[in-house]
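ok so for the tutorial part 2 we go from a plain amino acid sequence to predicted structure tokens. step 1 is just haveing the sequence, like this:
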Amino acid sequence: MTNIKDAIDTGGHPLGTWLSIGHPKVAEGVAQLDLDFVLVDMEHTTMSLETVENMARGVDAASSGTDTVVRVPWNDPVRLKRVVDIGVAGVMVPMIESAEEARALVDSIRYPPEGIRGIAGSRATGYGRNFEEYVANANGSILTIAQIETEKGLENAEEIASVKGIDALFVGPADLSGALGMFAEWDSAEFGDAIQQIIDASDRAGVPVGTLTVDIDAIDSRLEQGFDFLIAGKDIALLMNSVDRAIDDYAAALEEAITASYD
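step 2 — the prediction. this is what the tokens look like for a chain of 263 residues:
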């Protein structure tokens, strides 16, 4: 399986899934499937950095080629530094609204003189064993995704995508729809137009764009919209939907069995 950064850079169409349950077992289990990456969410969960590190270990233990991408809570150089020191394949950063913010993101995960990332013997460097080699080659190797999910971000999408070091844009559908006053109107013409603006901007900048679809039945329509890659499904939603289906199947089978016993 191709590294997620290479897949994005070469115009591939990688597939990931969303992890909000903070347990290494979930990460390791899902990583055994034919996925290009998992997205570990730190923005809207209670996950600590230690939890994320153990989830990354779980993904690595699956030995399947699946990569770990982490969504940090904010465009903060300290948070970003600590996450990339874990040795994950990429980061996603919410609420990027300008080229200036995008440049700050890139600077945060690059070592001097290209950026401001602090240098230390972390897990990413093999705890110091690969220290010099890692530092020499790390810049530009970490997938860097900017989320577009505000009206200002929508207006500046092309400028954001054009910042050197931004590898991809990502539409945050819930926040973007809310910011535009059309929350959850996923299939409305107005929201479709806003999405198209971002897709067109990314095309002009030569940068791929992805999104999340919690509803896996919407995968076809999202690809038809022009998205280059997807995060399909969210762990807790997939679990609940599967249990809900089991409940319905059980009720139907029980009714059939009871009916048959009276025949």
